[in-house]
Amino acid sequence: MTTSWLVTGARGLLGQDVLAELAGDPDARVTGLTRDQLDITDPTAVGAAVDGHQVVVNCAAWTDVDGAERSEAAATAVNGHGVRHLARACADGGAILLHVSTDYVFPGDARRPYREDAPTGPVNAYGRSKLAGERAVVELLPRTGYIVRTAWLYGEHGPSFVGTMLQLASRRETLDVVADQQGQPTWSRALAGQLGALGRAALAGRAPAGIYHGTAAGRTTWCGLARETFRLSGLDPERIRPVGSERFPRPAARPAFGVLGHDNWSRAGLVPLPQWDDQLVAALKTPALAALATAARPGELTR
């Protein structure tokens, strides 16, 4: 049976991978809308876009963490009010909403992975704006709303930490990278596959509505991720030097601990995402990241 999917933020890092994932589903009829095609802060436009779709995957978001600190109202207009418009339109049309959120809704002071039902407490404006969106989904879609929190997302369809490290490798002998923040680097293509699986489970009535954590298993630091990226790319990981967060003061505070637990996937009959380093192995074989790795190999450093 054919199902109708709408993907917002379709030109973004995750949105492009979600479209690619759904393109492989013969039963999915997919509409992808970019930010230029759908402004989710416009409730009338949102209602018209959602109409007739059975599943909405919201990849549209304000993602500039430091920019949100300077313009919290603008960030909340997208991440909070815009999500409310989507949730209301889905409620009116009987659609399922898969909304992508973030580990930044947590304060980052835990010592063990945050459960899906752990108390929230954002330490920055971006986290507050994303939490406003989560609350709208819970309020308006108690039975058909799915919140998927992710973190440290990287991929080949746009700027990301992994790509930036490889680009800098060809220009700098050493790189100082923060080593006192823990998280779960997550490949956007792996998350896209998980979102597709969750949507299909929701359509089949197998997945309870609520919160799911769409992050890789395991944990590392930004320094650990950079070093593993170098090692897998044939570069010397010792070129990455660990430093504290104080070396790079930013307008927005970053949670020191963003590791999430994955218990709720079993409720949907789904397996959580693989280990972060296994995902990285696969990601570095994709054309865009593989090309950056090749360009950064020893002997090609341009000073």
TrEMBL record:
<protein>
    <recommendedName>
        <fullName>dTDP-4-dehydrorhamnose reductase</fullName>
        <ecNumber>1.1.1.133</ecNumber>
    </recommendedName>
</protein>
<keyword id="KW-0560">Oxidoreductase</keyword>
<dbReference type="InterPro" id="IPR036291">
    <property type="entry name" value="NAD(P)-bd_dom_sf"/>
</dbReference>
<comment type="similarity">
    <text>Belongs to the dTDP-4-dehydrorhamnose reductase family.</text>
</comment>
<dbReference type="InterPro" id="IPR029903">
    <property type="entry name" value="RmlD-like-bd"/>
</dbReference>
<feature type="domain" description="RmlD-like substrate binding">
    <location>
        <begin position="6"/>
        <end position="285"/>
    </location>
</feature>
<dbReference type="Pfam" id="PF04321">
    <property type="entry name" value="RmlD_sub_bind"/>
</dbReference>
<dbReference type="InterPro" id="IPR005913">
    <property type="entry name" value="dTDP_dehydrorham_reduct"/>
</dbReference>
<dbReference type="GO" id="GO:0008831">
    <property type="term" value="F:dTDP-4-dehydrorhamnose reductase activity"/>
</dbReference>
<comment type="function">
    <text>Catalyzes the reduction of dTDP-6-deoxy-L-lyxo-4-hexulose to yield dTDP-L-rhamnose.</text>
</comment>
<keyword id="KW-0521">NADP</keyword>
<comment type="pathway">
    <text>Carbohydrate biosynthesis; dTDP-L-rhamnose biosynthesis.</text>
</comment>
